[in-house]
Amino acid sequence: MIVRRLKSVRGRIALPPDRLQAAMSAILAALAEGRSTISPWPGHGDFVRALKWLELAKVPFLLVDDKLSVDGRGIFVPASPDDAVPVGTSAEANLLCAAWFTALPGRAVRFRGRAVRLRRLQSELEALGGLECSADGDDLLVERTQEAGDLDETFERCAPAGRSARFLVAMLNCRKASRREPVASQETFFNALRTFGAPLETSVVGTQTLTDLQRRAMRRGKFRPERHVTWTLPAEVRLRPAEVELFADPSLAAFLVLLASLLPVSEIEIEQVALTPSRCGIFAALSRYGAALRRTRERERCNESGATVAVSTARRFDCGKSGSVRFAADQTACVGEDLPLLMAAAAFVDGESVFRTGGWRERNDERRSLLLENLRACSADVGEFDGGIVVRGREAPDPGSFSSDGDAPGALACAAIACMTAGQSDLDDRTLDALEELWPGWHSTLEGTNDG
Fold first, then answer.
1. Do 296 and 272 contact (CB within 8 A), yes or no?
2. I want to staple 244 with a disulfide (CB 3.0 to 4.6 A). Which of 25, 100, 127, 395 is the partner?
3. pLDDT tens-digit series, residues 138-192
C-alpha cells in the first residue's frame, strides 16, 4: 500500500478500546462467580480472539451491540482445548492467557498466530520458568512441568508482564502470592483484580538500597529514594462480578499524538484515553521532545485513570539545547510496548537520541532488527552499543518501504514514519493487516482528518 504524507490532522477522534484492559477483564470475568459486563466491546482483532479464549475455556458469554456479558465459573483452569488458542497483538495479554490455560502441570496447550508473535510469547514463557515450549511453524505447544509452589512466588526477577502472569498462576493454584514494586507504578492487572473484588493487601516496605553516590546526592537534596509497596493476595480468592467500562487504547493515542505534534497546523482531541501511570510512559517520553498534551474530562473508573487528550502542533520537536536526549533503562521500561513508536519519533528529530533498552533488546532480537531496518530505510543514522541503541534523526527523513512482519508495535512505528515523510512510502501487506487489527479503517479515518 502506498502512503503519502499527511498535511495535518484535525478534529475529534474516538479510538478502539484498550486491548490489554479488555483481555484482563475478560479473563477475570471468567474467573468471577456471576455475570460481569464489559463495554464497549468491538468486533475486530484481539477482541474477537478474547471471545475465542472464553469459548475454548467453555465460559458462557453473550455479545449484544457493543456490550459483552460473561457468566463466570469461579476460579478454574480450562481443560486442554482441542483447538489451538489464538495469539493476538498484545504481548502481555497473550502471556496472561497462556498462564491461565497452562496453570496446572501436565496440560499441553497449543497456541496459534503469526510467527513473530509466537516467538515473542515463547521467549516470555521460557523466562518465567516451569514451562516447556516447542514451536512448529505457526503453532506453539506449551506444557507446564512444575507446580506453582515450586516457583519463586515473590516474582522479583521477572519482567512486569511476567510477574503478572506468575501472580495469576499462583491465584489459580490457590497459593498465596506477593509482589514488590515502586509505589509510583500502578499496574493494570492489579487494578483489574481490585475491580473484581480480589482481597489485595498493600504495605509500603521502605526504600530501595542506596549506593554511596545516591546517599551523597540525597543529603544535598538532589535525589529522592523511591519507596516500594508489596501487593499480597491470599491463597483462597473469590472474585465477584463487575461492570467494566474500557478506556481508549493508549498505544493508538500515542500514534496520533506523534502525528499531531509533528505535522503542521494540527489539532486533535482523543476521547477518553487510558492514562494509568504504568500505561502512559510513551506520553512522558514524547513530551521530552516537545509534544504538549492537555488533559480534560479526567475520570476514574474500574480503578483505571483516563481523560480526553488534546494535542496540537508542537512549538518545537527536538533534542533541546544539548542536541541529545537520553532515556535510561527504567524510562524505556515505562514506555514498554510503545518503544518502536518512540524510536520512530527520534528519526524526525535533528539530534541524538540514546535508548538504554535493558532486557528489551535481548527479549526482542527479531523485532529490534526489523525496527532498525525501518529506521535506516528512512535515512536515520542508527547505531548499537552494549545495552542500548542510538538514533540520529533529521527533520525531513526520506520515504521508503517499511515492514513489521505483522508485529503490532512495529506496524504503528512504520505507519507513523510513512504518514510523516515527504513523498510516497510503501507498507507491506503484513503491516497493513496488523494495523487493521488494531484500528479498522485507520487510514481512511486519518485521511478524513487531513486538512487540505
1. no
2. 25
3. 899 999 887 765 554 444 444 556 778 888 988 998 888 777 766 555 578 888 9
- List C-alpha distances in Å: 382 to 124, 346, 352, 385: 27, 10, 10, 10
- AA letter at 267: E
**DSSP single-letter state for residue 239:** B
Cα 350 versus chain centre, distance: 28
Length of the chain: 452
Please state the pTM of the whole predicted model: 0.89
In order of start, what are the domains of the chain with their CATH numbers?
A: 2-16+248-449 (3.65.10.10), 19-212+222-245 (3.65.10.10)
Rounded Cα distance between 228 and 445, Å, is 43
Phi, psi of 405, deg, nearest 5: 60, 25
Cα separation, 284 vs 290, in Å, equals: 10
pLDDT of residue 17: 96
- Cα(418)–Cα(422) distance, integer angstroms: 8
Asked whether 218 and 207 are in contact (CB, 8 A), the reply is: no
Give the integer Cα–Cα distance in Å for 182 and 258. Answer: 28
User: Measured between alpha carbons, how far is 45 from 42 in angstroms, rounded to an integer?
Assistant: 9
Angle at alpha carbon of residue 140, lines to 85 and 115, rounded to 5°: 95
